[in-house]
Amino acid sequence: MVDRREFLRISGHLAGTAMLTGTALRAHAAADPSYLSATALVAQFRRGQLSPVDVLDAQIRRIETLNDKVNCITVKHYEDARAAAHDAAARYRRGNARPLEGLTVAVKDEYAVNGWRTTMGSTLLKDVPPAQDDGPIAARLRAAGAIFHIQTTVPEFYVWMTTATRLWGVTRNPWNLAYTPGGSSGGSGAALAAGFTTLALGSDMGGSIRVPASQCGLYGFKPPFGRIPTSEVPYETDGPMARTFDDMNLLTDVMVGPHPLVHSSVRPRLRYPARYESVSGWKVAYDPMPHMTALDPTVTRAMAQAIAALRQAGVTVDTVDVGFNADDLDTYMAGLMSTSMGGMMTEAMKHPEQLMPYTRAVFEKMQGKAGPEALVHTEELLNEYQRRVQETVFLKGYRALLTPTLGTPLVPAEHGMQPDIDSAKIGDQQVTGLKFALTWVWNMLGLYPVVSVPAGLGPGHMPIGMQIIANTLDDLTAFQLASAYSRAASPLYVGNRLPDFRNEQV
C-alpha cells in the first residue's frame, strides 16, 4: 500500500469487440470459467480439468469485450500475468501448488507492486515513479501463487464513495451501468462483478470495501486494525473482496498476519478455517441505524429477507438502536484528516484547480478543522460509541450486530463529478453528500471486524448489502455468521442473478 508519507515523498513529481447484452450475457457468463469461484478453480486445477492459463485467457477476453462499458481498469499487465499463469500450470502438474496458485487478483490502485505506478486516481500523480518493490500484501500474495493481471480504478485520493476521475474516467456498475460500483475500491468491485478477475484487493477507511461489496453483490471484509499489515493510520485497513464467502475466506487467510515492516500488524497470526460450525442458537442484534439515514424501502425489504435467512439457520435476531448519528461524520472526518491523511490533503490543495469537485469539496470543508483538538473530539466520540455498542449489543449477550451497508443502491455513476451532481435517491427523496453510507463508524471503531454480505437485488437489478459486525478482534465470530448466512441466503452470480450490463435509470 502507498501510504500518506509515501505520498509526500513522491509529491515532487506532481504534474502541472462486439458487445453482448441481457440474456446472452447471462448465458455466456454461466459457461465462462471467468465466473468460477476460487475454490472451484483450485479443485479443477488440481484435477487437471482446467488450467490457470485457460481462466486468465477467458478473463482477458471478457476485459477486451466489456471493459469499454465498465471502465474499471487503469493498467493491464497481461504479459507478466501470462508468464505467471504458465508457471502456475507447471506447479499443478508437479504437485507443488501454493494456496492461491493460478488465481487472478485485481489490485486496487493503492497497493505497491514492483514496477507499477500508484496514481491514487489523480492527475497530480500520473507520472510518479513506479514502485521498486512489492508492498507487504503484494509480496505475500505473490508468494502464495496469485496472479496480478489488472490494476483497478479508484476515486481521487480515495475520498469518495463513487469511482470517477479526470485521470481514468467514470467507472460503472456491471449490474446496471447507470449506477456506481461504489468507492473507493469501486474498480475492484466492478472487476469482480464483470468476471474480469477471480479475487480482488480493496482498502477501507470509511467504507471503501463494504460500499463496493454492497453495490456489486460481493463479500467484503473490513478487518480490525492491524490484522492485515497496512499502515499506522488507525482508521484504515487493506482487505479482501470476492463473489463468494469461501473465496473471501481463502484470500483473507493469506493476507493476514504480522509483518516485520508494519509496526501496527497484530500478533499472533489468526487462521481462518475452511469450514465453520453452525450458528443455531445464537442471539444477534439488528440496528437499522435510523439516525444515520433513511432507508430505501427496497433496502428495508432486503434486510428483512436476510434476517429471515438467518432465522431459518436458527439465529434469534432482535432490533436495537445503538444511537449512531449522521451528524458525527464531520467529527470523524476531522480526526481522519488529523492523521497523515492531512499531509496528503495539504499537498493536494496546492493544486486545487486539478482536483475533482468532490475531492476539493471534502478538502475545503476540512481546512482549519484538522489538528490536535480534532483528534481529541474524535477520541471522545469513539469512546462514546464504544460504550453504546458494548452496552446495547455485546454486554447484552448478542454475538454480533447486523446493519444495512447503504441507505440506497441507486447512486449515479457520475455522483460527485460536478459540484451540483452529488445526490442519491432514497425512496422518492434525493439526498446529498455521503451520509447515505452506514459504514464509517466501524473505521473510527477500528478494532471491530466487519463483513459485508449481499442481501439481495433491488430496483434496477442493483445489489443491496448487509454488514455483520462482531466484537473487537473477534473475526472468526463474524466469519462464522457470514458463512452460515452464505449457505442460507439465495446466492448471486447464479442463474439469472448475474450482471447483465443494462443501462437503466430507476
TrEMBL record:
It comes from the Bacteria. InterPro entries: Amidase, Amidase_CS, Amidase_dom, AS_sf, TAT_signal. Gene3D superfamilies: Amidase signature (AS) domain. Residues 54-475 form the Amidase domain. Belongs to the amidase family. This is Amidase domain-containing protein. It comes from Pandoraea vervacti.
